[in-house]
Every structure is written in C-alpha cells, then in structure tokens.
Design a protein that fits this description.
The chain is α+β, with helices and mostly antiparallel strands. The protein has eleven helices and nine strands.
C-alpha cells in the first residue's frame, strides 16, 4: 500500500498523478481510480454495518422498505436501488462511498474532519486523508476473474452480496456462475445506476463488503495485484484547502443539490 502526504490541492493532485503513473507502469492503458475522503487516516475502510456489533441489517432494510415508499417520487426498482437508498439516508450498510473525482473526496475528507473535531476523542486522532483505489484490482482479488472491471448490479453474480444472502451472522456463500465457482466473502467494486441527484453530482461509486469483516485496505494490500493508496492532508485547518476547492467549483451545494446545502454554504462563507 502506498502512503504519502499533501500540503495543498495542487500537491494532492501531483501525488495522485504520480501514483497513477506508478500503477500504469510500462502499460499505455490508463487505469481507473476511485477516491474516498475520510476524517482521519486512522479510520479503517470498514462499512457502517460492520462497525455495529451484531447489527440485524436485513431486518432494518426490510422495515425501511415497508415504511418509506410514500416519501419517494420514484419507488426503487430493485433490491440494489433500495440498498443504495439505505446508504443515502445514513442507515448503516456494508457499502462504502467512493467518487470518480479526487476533489469530491477531498471535500468529504475536510468536512468529516471538521465535524469530528467537535468530539474530544477525534481531536486526538491523526488528520484527514484521501484514499485511492483501482477498483478493477479489488475485483480481481475478490473474484479471481480476468475481467477486472467494476460490476454493474443487479445481476445473478452481484446479488449474492445483497441483504438476504450476505451480512452479519450469514455464512460465506459459495455459488456457481458461468461455469466457475465463487464466494461472496470479499468486497466488490460496483457501479450504481445514477438515478439520484446526489450520486450524480458526487460522481458516486461504491464498494460493498461481503461476508468477511476485514478492512478493505487489508484485503487489497494483502495481494500483489492490489492497488490502494492513502494520501494524508497536512494542516487541514488551513483555509487554503477550502478556498481552492470553491475556486474549482466544489462546495456543498454543488454536491448536495438541495436548498439546505445553499444555506449551509452561506453560513460557512459569512461565518453566521
């Protein structure tokens, strides 16, 4: 696993470019990279559902489906649609949010760090960071499949990672697909259908954990084919980070296209 630091937006982008070139190696093929911002580089890449001991994720999901349809303009079309909505509304799931944009990930890293600073415990933690993941390498490890591209659910393969077949207390499932045997033990990199404005604005992608609770960075770093990196952000309290992001068109209302976001942006700008 690659570790480095960045002192500003330009430095971050230079670091990302250097890591990308290293991953590309002698090949002329450009690798696909996803980004995730977190409030401290101490936090491991474990999803919310696996941070809650013995959480009955399936029952929680079933009740969410029963109680919420009347609140949506468009009812979800499949089980993955429902699962993405659970994540969207901050229910603990086995999903981790990623973005195709490093600047979106940077926004969330700084925003999470700012929120975490309100707690005494978080003030003692190392600063925020941006994770980089080559999603194809994760799927190569998880499925040992030569087609190392993100998987688009729903489908007979990806459905083995849904609530009814995967999660706390459920055994690792072994299944056949196109003449080969697989398990749902390890995480998958999946590409959602971007029906929701937030997912579209944030260029959202996901990883979904399987039956194993191992941190995603451990899974990827344990295999020579894995490509994952962590870039720590130096002096996150510096206004330069946020000023540069705003100049580049990345601010709350751009990522959360809702009136509440405009109000929060104005409160930040006017220190209200």
């Amino acid at each position: 696993m690659i570790n480095r630091s960045a002192s500003g937006v330009i430095d971050l982008l230079r670091g990302i470019y250097a890591i990308r070139k290293r991953w590309e190696g002698a090949s002329d093929d450009e690798v696909e990279i996803w980004f995730r911002g977190v409030g401290s580089c101490k936090y491991t890449l474990i999803p919310g559902a696996y941070r809650k001991p013995e959480l009955d994720e399936e029952s929680m999901g079933n009740e969410f489906e029963q109680r919420s349809p009347s609140y949506f303009d468009r009812e979800p079309t499949d089980e993955w649609d429902w699962y993405f909505l659970m994540q969207h509304y901050r229910l603990p799931t086995r999903l981790l949010d990623w973005s195709e944009s490093p600047l979106v990930a940077l926004f969330f890293a700084l925003d999470s760090w700012k929120q975490d600073r309100a707690t005494t415990r978080a003030r003692r933690l190392p600063g925020p960071c941006v994770w980089m993941l080559e999603p194809g390498s994760l799927n190569l490890i998880s499925t040992d499949n030569v087609d190392n591209a993100p998987i688009v659910p729903p489908g007979k393969f990806s459905n083995h990672w849904l609530l009814r077949q995967c999660g706390y207390g459920k055994p690792v499932a072994t299944f056949e697909f196109e003449g080969k045997t697989y398990t749902n033990a390890l995480p998958l990199a999946i590409m959602p259908k971007r029906r929701e404005p937030r997912i579209l604005a944030q260029q959202g992608m996901f990883t979904v954990h399987g039956a194993s609770r191992d941190a995603l960075e451990s899974v990827v770093a344990s295999d020579r084919r894995g490509r994952i990196a962590c870039i720590r952000l130096e002096k996150p309290a510096s206004p330069g980070w946020r000023d540069d992001l705003r100049t580049l068109g990345v601010f709350r209302a751009a990522l959360f296209p809702e009136p509440d976001s405009i109000a929060l942006d104005l409160r930040d700008r006017y220190e209200a």
